[in-house]
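User: Hi! I'm working on a homework problem where we have to compare a predicted structure to a textbook description. Could you give me the structure for the chain below?
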Amino acid sequence: MSTSINIIGCGIIGATIAYELSQSSECQINVYDSQQPNQAATGAALGVLMGIISQKVKGRAWNFRKESITRYQSLIPELEKLTGLNIPYNSQGIVKILPPEEDLTKWEQLVATRTEQEWQLELWNSRKITTKLPQINRQFTGTAVYSPQDLQVDPVALTNALIAAAKKNGVKFHFDRLIESITADNPLSCDISTLNLPIITSDWVIVAAGLGSTSLLAPHAPIEIQPVLGQAYQIRLPKPLGNPDFQPVIISDDVNIVPCGGNDYWVGATVEFPVDGVMVAQPEALAKIKQIAINICPMLATGEIIRTWQGLRPRPNHRPAPVIDRVGTNKRVLVATGHYRNGILLAPATARIISDMLVVV
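Assistant: Happy to help. Predicted structure tokens:
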């Protein structure tokens, strides 16, 4: 007998859950989203997967990162083979530039810890930085951390491939379909309702609706998700930064410089909170990240900005990110939301946890 599952939300989290669950022939899965794919936080993300370079070394936060980075090594080629789609990704790692005054003790300890955990992490002095990355400002005198096993992946291409692969496995997707409410009175099933359509019943409901999760779950549990805006831009240069054969992601002062093919780079992203309850993109915030990027890679000043964009990240209030839990008294309503700035990174681990929760009632 098959298990029926309704997933609400088809960003990177909902799409990954749908794909991973679709590999079981016992699951009958429907995915609902109020808009087309990649219109919310996923479409605005840069796809930088900071796992090994994270300061997290134990517990839930580290285990999530370790599991997801490991899964991505097989997931991307798996999806490309199954769908025939190309998923642009960068396997040349992440270089995090540290300021000259940085205390290196914690980074030296992290390198030692990662070595014990059988992961790679390196500390570079300023000479090695400018040798490996000649695009870095020659006046720079600090150090850097290089993580060769961390990745960057195109979030839109990845989500589209997850959807295509899930469809091949029998998942049905319903876009531009707003779910208005969830009813969980029956301990053996759950109902969802949508405008002008009959009640839809399933064995399980998984809410992965990002910022929309708060209102959907309000009758069952107070899960407050706050929007945090991020702005980014794409710049086109006359030629690639530095060595064309070595194009890692560069991070400085929380600003990401992301190679995205040819002479193009993504630069972002800002972190902007609502002011007096109102969320408005701040031009000065975007100008600040532009200047930080130019300070570290002066050649960026010669490029042409061909695109700017923004998106809202879902950040939980009064609890750590992400929120992966059962909701209310009905054990068949699950939530996977509030990943904040790590939705792309943590999607595989989230999908596995949700899968495990489905079989334990």
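For your comparison, note the following. Residues 59-83 form the longest helix (25 residues). The chain has two domains: 3-87+154-224+318-358, 91-150+226-316. Good luck with the assignment!
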